[in-house]
Write a structure and sequence with these properties.
This protein is of the alpha+beta class. The longest helix has 12 residues. The protein is globular. The structure holds glutathione. The site of glutathione (GSH) has 12 residues, from helix 1.
Length: about 100
């Protein structure tokens, strides 16, 4: 089972782009599902996954739900030691002020 990534539109949501880039950049297999940020049902759509009601959200192959970009980075880096932890952290932390 692959990772499942729940994000908004990467064109408008840099948070969503960050989540997507972490998996894509390190060739980690995943399926992504885009949730409409401005549909009016965003919070309801996210309710089963995360109390924060924010994207990105990662569902691991073991079924664990991880929300918060830095937590996703840490989870991926632990599970995929070949992916450079420092680089992933940099993606999150350097872009955080622009969220
Ligand atoms: N601290 C969160 C921030 C995520 C975030 O702000 N996501 C935005 C993406 S546009 C969101 O879901 N906003 C919807 C809302 O706050 O209702 C993280 O690190 O992932």
């Amino acid at each position: 089972m692959a990772y499942e990534l729940y994000i908004g539109d990467r064109t408008f949501s840099s948070w969503s782009l960050r989540g997507w880039l972490m998996l894509k950049s390190f060739d980690i297999p995943f399926k992504s599902q885009m949730l409409g940020l401005y549909t009016g049902s965003f919070e309801k759509d996210l309710a089963p996954f995360a109390p924060t009601r924010q994207v990105p959200i990662l569902k691991t192959p073991k079924g664990h739900i991880v929300f918060n970009t830095l937590a996703i980075a840490e989870t991926l880096a632990e599970a995929h030691p070949s992916a450079a932890l420092a680089a992933i952290r940099a993606i999150c932390q350097n872009s955080a002020p622009y969220g």
